[in-house]
């Protein structure tokens, strides 16, 4: 998903709003944009209503233009148009838009399925072996298993991590925890976090 965080500051006050839209593959985005242009014409891209009428297309277009470093009028569409140009407070124009591409939506992970491996990897490990032994949670993957998976990925070995993860999930299932994360996503996101 793409996430847009807006902050507007006027007269010393500020507030933030956040909007999340799904990320579209550039080919899908192109097809959707072609549909809009066919149905509404080129004029649709200069109307401020475009932001509210087609938010997924708008924010994905904005993200794409930022990534390819192309100049565009699109950011101006989400800025408010002042109704009275004579009494414009210069501070009321201050507004920033921050767009961030999220490769995982944390709200999709339930407590029942446990955290994905990359979140377990990010957790700081206790320095004391005694504390480490006491804090071991048998309802989630062991950190040693995660390190073994990372080591295998660094050696371009994908079969070992799959086997190891399947074995660990089978053990967790016998303890009553059913992990719903796909093997591929769990390993991919771990690799992105640990290796880059």
From TrEMBL:
One of its GO terms (cellular component) is plasma membrane. One of its GO terms (molecular function) is guanyl-nucleotide exchange factor activity. InterPro entries: DENN_Domain_GEFs (IPR051696). One of its GO terms (biological process) is regulation of basement membrane organization. PANTHER family: DENN DOMAIN-CONTAINING PROTEIN 4 (PTHR12296), DENN DOMAIN-CONTAINING PROTEIN CRAG (PTHR12296:SF30). This is Calmodulin-binding protein related to a Rab3 GDP/GTP exchange protein. It comes from Drosophila simulans (Fruit fly).
């Amino acid at each position: 998903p793409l996430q847009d965080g807006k902050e507007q500051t006027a007269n010393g006050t500020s507030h933030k709003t956040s909007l999340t839209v799904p990320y579209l593959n550039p080919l899908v985005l192109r097809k959707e944009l072609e549909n809009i242009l066919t149905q509404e014409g080129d004029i649709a891209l200069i109307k401020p209503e475009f932001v509210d009428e087609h938010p997924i297309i708008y924010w994905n277009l904005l993200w794409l233009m930022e990534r390819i470093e192309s100049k565009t009028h699109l950011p101006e569409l989400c800025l408010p148009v002042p109704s009275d140009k004579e009494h414009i407070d210069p501070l009321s124009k201050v507004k920033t838009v921050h767009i961030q591409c999220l490769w995982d939506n944390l709200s999709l992970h339930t407590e029942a399925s446990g955290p994905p491996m990359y979140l377990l990897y990010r957790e700081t490990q206790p320095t004391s072996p005694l504390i480490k032994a006491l804090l071991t949670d048998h309802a989630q993957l062991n950190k040693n298993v995660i390190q073994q998976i990372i080591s295998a990925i660094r050696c371009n070995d994908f079969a070992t991590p799959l086997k190891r993860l399947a074995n660990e999930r089978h053990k967790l299932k016998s303890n009553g925890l059913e992990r719903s994360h796909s093997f591929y996503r769990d390993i991919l996101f771990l690799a992105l976090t640990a290796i880059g």
